[in-house]
Amino acid sequence: MFRNFVKNYRVLDLGFVGHPYTWWNKREGDDVIKSRLDRVLYDPRWSLMFNSATCFHMGMIGADHCPIMPNTEVETIKSKRRFLFDRRWAGKDGYEEVIKNAWAKEVSGCRWYQVCEEIKNVRMGFIKWCKRNNFNSRIRIDDIQLRLKEAFEFGGTSKEEVRQLEQDLDHAWGEEEVFLEEQC
Q1: Which SUPFAM superfamilies match (predicted)?
Q2: What CA–CA distances, in Å, run from 61 to 28, 39, 145?
């Protein structure tokens, strides 16, 4: 009967997050039975409006059924990454300017607060600077390797250009090694 309902009305199971079962017979050992009886069903048109909807199984709390809770709100979980100074930045164009600009911003308050805010300004300056300049050596390595592959497969690239690409690749690998050393 349930399967006929699902088939006839063309509804879909939303799925779930949490414990896999929503019901159990409260027995133990070989007599225990667990099943996912409770579900959230939806029409495909509904999913167009709530495409990130989820259903949470709340866990068994004394009853034989587990409460379920549909959620239609989009959750954006943004984790704060710890800021680490990257040695590869030293000597790059604009590096010193980021520091000078950050320390030049006027901050009021006690000296300890000023120093903390100035350090925060440096951190934020480096974050913005990095986003603008894309210092990801792994991406550069992949890009250079692709360009070298195209040069070898399709030709039309001078020996000097290939040599320059190889030097750029060596440099990018060197920067990647520095980055990986810092991660350890």
Answers
A1: DNase I-like
A2: 17, 18, 56
Of 32, 35, 39, 33, the closest CA to residue 2 belongs to: 39
Answer whether residue 81 shows pLDDT above 80.
no
Question: Three-state SS for 13?
Answer: strand
Q: 0.70 exceeded by the pTM? A: no
Q: What is the rounded distance in angstroms from the CA atom of residue 106 to the CA atom of residue 112?
A: 14
**Run of H or E including 24:** strand 23-24
Residue 97: which residues within 8 A CB-CB, separation 6 or more? none
pLDDT band for position 97 (cuts 50, 70, 90)? very high
- Token pair 């890009």 in the structure block, residue: 143
Residue type, 89: W
Nearest in space to 11 (alpha carbons), one of 46, 60, 38: 46
Q: Do residues 35 and 23 lie in contact, with contact meaning Cβ atoms separated by under 8 Å?
A: yes
For the chain, give the number of residues: 184
